[in-house]
Amino acid sequence: MLRSFTRVFTFSKLDEVLENLRKSAEKYKEEVKSLRNGLNVNSWVYTPIWNECQKALIFQGYALVSTQERTVRLLAQVNYYDVHHDLLKEGKKIKELLELNLEASLWEALLKFLESQATQEA
How far apart are CA 81 and CA 93, in angstroms? Predict the structure, then answer.
């Protein structure tokens, strides 16, 4: 289902991709702040979980929107399969890439939610 969103790149472009993801996450975060309209809005990504049996690195994060009366918290989980553990020991940039990918996605989801709310109120 998510394959259509996949962007393939070579390892030589990793630093460029990391920088683009950082900029995207910050851009979405700033846009969310401008649209929050009194709502408490936040997101965070947890330390990844390594599943040895599946050779999977599992990232979980939350997107949160709350008022004094209600809180909506969305759990997002992305599983990266066939990840070689040796690569993770040596590749801090790989972990950073995967974490930034989820972080940018969470902030983008929050932005789309707030934009839809603003459209409904207009």
Answer: 17
pTM: 0.85
Q: Where are the domains of the chain?
A: 29-116
Specify which residues 79 forms β-bridges with.
58
Token duo for residue 85? 């553990």
Give the pLDDT of residue 90: 60
- Alpha-carbon distance 119 to 30, whole Å? 19
Mean pLDDT in consecutive groups of 10 residues from the start of the chain, 122 residues: 69 91 96 91 91 90 92 91 74 86 94 85 66
Q: Distance between CA atoms of 50 and 88, rounded to whole angstroms?
A: 10
Q: How is 27-90 classified by DSSP, letter by letter? A: HHHHHHHHH-TT-EEEEEEPPPEEETTTTEEEEEEEEEEE-SS-EEEEEEEEEE-S--HHHHHH
- Cα separation values, 81 from 21, 45, 70, 102, 111, Å: 21, 18, 36, 15, 28
**List of residues 6+ apart from 34 with CB closer than 8 A:** none
